[in-house]
Design a protein that fits this description.
This protein is an alpha/beta fold. The protein is built from 11 helices and 8 strands. The structure holds NADP nicotinamide-adenine-dinucleotide phosphate.
Length: about 270
């Protein structure tokens, strides 16, 4: 299989590394990236072919992975319209709708839009995917194989639900980091050595996530199991509830979802419109 990556940055690097580890037979990969340093690094690290710009060599690709920044997408895609004609196109770019990609690719419809998250960079991501009716089962399976190279995959039934994926797992790592920072700071303020507070916090997140992942009961049951009546956890949760923390999280994610739709409007606009 011939795979072309448009953009050879962080996400492309993670996907290429994952694909080369798992895909048999080894796919022939070409990366288009104007940055010489990126091209040299990718060629050295993975032995892939690189190009500074779209060229006839890219014509034979079966799969075109769009991994440039959303703001770079329109300009990067316009020269590729002819080359993409026989390819499945998989976009990992945040917030660019299929209709806009399709228009910039001259009406191409074999497009799968995905929304990965940053843990993908260490192979621990989760990616939301959406495809329109023009994308068949084999193409869906191929797109899923690509994103599974860097973690888990979840399909959504309608494209706007990718905005909800963005608000949840796309931006979610930052919410978790925020919570980690707050717990580390509170632990240190309660007298713990900052390094110990950091280790206790990280191990707690890792352990709780692993426990939730392994459990056969709902997460709410796990929470109730550590919350003895009148105990320390009950005191902490009562404080959180009195501040309406769950409602604040709901509001925050609603804001993220709304912003995802606004950004898609902005990124998808043609200059003359
Ligand atoms: N990183 C993540 O964890 C993550 C998570 C979710 C989604 N994504 C999505 O993945 C996409 C890539 O993100 P990234 O973090 O990998 O970005 P990145 O590291 O900046 O990589 C993008 C690469 O594309 C190159 N480029 C710019 N214009 C180009 C063109 N016309 N043709 C080909 N290549 C071009 C850039 O070169 P220059 O640096 O010279 O401009 C850069 O090397 C984005 O759309 C982002 O929304 C990333």
């Amino acid at each position: 299989m011939n795979i072309t990556f448009l953009g050879g940055g962080n996400m492309a690097t993670a996907l290429i590394g994952g694909l080369l580890k798992q895909a048999e037979p080894r796919p022939r990969i070409t990366v288009i990236d104007p940055a010489q340093s990126q091209r040299e690094r990718l060629a050295r690290e993975f032995g892939v072919q690189t190009l500074a710009a779209a060229a006839p060599q890219a014509q034979a690709c079966d799969l075109l992975v769009l991994a440039v920044k959303p703001q770079q997408m329109r300009e990067a895609l316009l020269p590729l319209a002819a080359q993409a004609r026989s390819a499945l196109v998989v976009s990992v770019a945040a917030g660019i709708r299929c209709a806009d990609l399709s228009r910039w690719l001259g009406g191409h419809t074999r497009i799968v839009r995905t929304m990965p998250n940053t843990p993908a960079l260490i192979g621990a991501g989760i990616t939301g995917l959406w495809a329109g009716p023009a994308v068949g089962e084999a193409d869906r399976a191929l797109a899923e194989q690509v994103v599974r190279a860097v973690g888990e995959a979840v399909w959504v039934a309608q494209e706007p639900l990718l905005d909800a994926v963005t608000a949840l797992s796309g931006s979610g790592p930052a919410y978790v980091f925020y919570f980690i920072e707050a717990m580390q700071a509170a632990g240190a303020r309660l007298g713990l050595d900052p390094e110990a507070a950091a280790r206790l916090t990280l191990a707690t997140f890792r352990g709780a996530a692993a426990l939730a992942g392994a459990a056969t009961v709902p997460v709410s049951t796990l929470r109730e199991q550590v919350t003895s009546k009148g105990g320390t956890t009950a005191a902490a949760l009562a404080s959180m509830q009195s501040h309406g923390l769950a409602a604040r999280i709901d509001e925050a994610m609603t804001a993220a979802c709304r912003r995802a739709a606004e950004l898609a409007d902005e990124f998808g606009r043609d200059p003359q419109a």
